[in-house]
Automatic annotation (TrEMBL):
<dbReference type="InterPro" id="IPR052355">
    <property type="entry name" value="CENP-V-like"/>
</dbReference>
<dbReference type="GO" id="GO:0016846">
    <property type="term" value="F:carbon-sulfur lyase activity"/>
</dbReference>
<keyword id="KW-0479">Metal-binding</keyword>
<dbReference type="Pfam" id="PF04828">
    <property type="entry name" value="GFA"/>
</dbReference>
<dbReference type="InterPro" id="IPR006913">
    <property type="entry name" value="CENP-V/GFA"/>
</dbReference>
<protein>
    <recommendedName>
        <fullName>CENP-V/GFA domain-containing protein</fullName>
    </recommendedName>
</protein>
<feature type="domain" description="CENP-V/GFA">
    <location>
        <begin position="4"/>
        <end position="125"/>
    </location>
</feature>
<dbReference type="InterPro" id="IPR011057">
    <property type="entry name" value="Mss4-like_sf"/>
</dbReference>
<keyword id="KW-0862">Zinc</keyword>
<dbReference type="GO" id="GO:0046872">
    <property type="term" value="F:metal ion binding"/>
</dbReference>
<comment type="similarity">
    <text>Belongs to the Gfa family.</text>
</comment>
Length: 146
């Protein structure tokens, strides 16, 4: 397993993506919606991987929902960086990571454009279940995982 580390600019939100893929095998997807475009987001995920999200200051964890309110975008209120997106369902949580936040971002292939806004709500959710990380864990700095 490879572990890709990342964080927001100030370090309040940290991410660890464990994957059997190498960075060169992870294909970032640049969503063409206005929100993702304005943030320069390109999403990577591994449906067989594991994502750990550690929050230093819980009060500075911002979230934003747009469009059909299906997914929650995770931002740092201190520095404004968009770190991840997640969707919580009855059988679990699914997420993708903003590739631009990863320490190894330069090792990833160039992003390809994705247009989820053209999909229906059901099609989006099915796509996310297929592509996104299904093993997502939240931690606070008090957990000893800082």
């Amino acid at each position: 397993m490879n572990t890709l580390h990342g964080q927001c600019h100030c370090g309040n939100l940290r991410i660890d993506l464990r994957t059997a893929s190498t960075p060169s095998q992870l294909q970032p997807r640049a969503c063409d919606c206005g929100f993702c475009t304005r943030h320069g987001a390109a999403w990577v995920s591994d449906p067989h991987g594991r994502l750990d999200i550690t929050v230093q200051d819980q009060a500075a964890l911002g979230d934003y929902r747009q469009g059909a309110n299906l997914a929650r975008f995770l931002l740092c209120r201190h520095c404004g960086v968009l770190v991840a997106v997640e969707r919580e369902e009855a059988d679990g949580r699914f997420a993708a990571v903003n590739a631009r936040c990863l320490d190894d971002a330069a090792s990833l292939p160039a992003a390809v454009t994705a247009s989820p806004q053209r999909l229906s709500a059901d099609e989006k959710q099915a796509r996310w279940r297929q592509l996104w990380i299904a093993d997502v864990h939240w931690h606070s700095a008090r957990d000893g995982r800082s």
